[in-house]
Every structure is written in C-alpha cells, then in structure tokens.
Amino acid sequence: MAISRSVSQKPVSVAEAQLARVAGDGCARHPHLNGLLEAAGRHSARDLADSVHLLCNLHGRYPGLIEIALQRCPKGEARSWLEHASEAFERERLYVVRLTSSVGPLPSTPGAAETEASLQAARHALETLATSERKGCALGAATALVGDWWPIRRLLDRAAARVGLECPAPSLPDEASVVDVIRLASDTPASERALAFGGEQLLLQHRALFDLLEARAEARGDY
C-alpha cells in the first residue's frame, strides 16, 4: 500500500509517511523544547524540572499508551512489536520517575488547576487512542510515541546531567522495526487512515504539552 504524492513523484509508503509525520510535526521542532536543550540561564534548572514533572505526569504512569494497546492487540506482527516496545518503554518510565524525584519539587506556577486539567485531558486522549476499535489507530499512536520520544530523551538526559543522575542506555525499537511493523500491519486503506490518525493525535498531545510548558515558564517570569 502506498500514498501517492503526485503523478510525477515517487509514491510514499505508509511507513515513510509516518516517519515524515513524526519528523515534521513532532516535538523536536517545538521552540520551547529546543530552548530547554540550549538554555543556560538562571531559570534553566527550574524550567527543566518543570518539564520532567509534566512528562512524568503524562507518561510516567502504568499502564501507559503502549501497554494498553498491547493488552488489546491480537496475535500478529503488531503485537510482537508492541511487546518489545512495552519492555523498552518500561525502562524509560522508570528513568522518568527516578529523574522526577531527583530534580526537586514541581516549580510553583500560576494556574495549577488549569495545568492539571490539561494533563488529565491529555492522559484521557492517549487512553482513547490506545483503546480505539479502529485497526491501526493504537499502532499509529504507539509508533509515533516511540519516534517522538527521542527528542524527549535528549531533554531528560540534559536534566539528568544537571542533577548528576546516570542516564540509562535507550532500548526503544529502532526506525527499521517501526517501518517493518507498519508495512506488515497496515494492510487496508482503512487501517492506513487509522494509523495516520493515531500518529497525528499523539503528536498533537506532545506539542500541546510543550505549549503548556512554555506558557508555564512565561507565567513564572523572573520569580
């Protein structure tokens, strides 16, 4: 199955489209994430701590998106990939939890109730994607999460370096395995559309999280 770009261009596979989606719409392009990676000012530690706490709130709970998707996935290529991804992401989850306890308390910020409401809505959105009845939706969200985790991991590692915490070696599925599972599991136009939707929605939640972090940093100002 392939998605046509135009008559004159080579068709793009579903897997290639997913990788391009993560690269183009993922949090790696978010200015606040890049600012956190580069910042060295007097508020950088506070802003890094805020990002770690909110990431833990979204992805540090068990079961997460990948585990819920695995629980509902029938035997086959997608299930095998999700099993690997689940094992690897459990290590990432433990890393986030350990890091959260090491960076200090959540920075005091105006609008705490609004922040919690936003995070609750995001967690609900991820659960909805993971439990979708549309074949391909949960896999689309899971593969997008794995792909979009790499820039997040850079942020976590920067926070860990500041507090002297050892960074564990990442073990998430590589790009080749993502391409393979999408190619094997996306066998109908409907599953292709569902996979694209799941990926888009996961990336939307990540961008919204960094929008929230940026707004919180601005709300704190110089205090």
Explain this structure.
The protein is an all-alpha fold. The chain contains nine helices and two strands, in the order E-E-H-H-H-H-H-H-H-H-H. It has a two-stranded antiparallel sheet with strand order 1-2. The longest helix has 32 residues, at 189-220. The termini are far apart. The model has no long low-confidence stretch (mean pLDDT 94).
Report how far the terminal alpha carbons are from each other.
Answer: 54 Å
Question: Helical amount among residues, as a percent range?
Answer: over 70%
Strand content: under 5%
What is the alpha-carbon Rg in Å?
Answer: 18 Å
Shape: elongated
Low-confidence parts lasting 5 or more residues at pLDDT below 50? none
Number of helices: 9
H-E order: EEHHHHHHHHH
Could you tell me the mean pLDDT?
A: 94
Strand order, main sheet: write it out: 1-2
Q: Largest sheet at a glance?
A: 2 strands, antiparallel
The helix-and-strand class reads mainly alpha
Count the E strands: 2
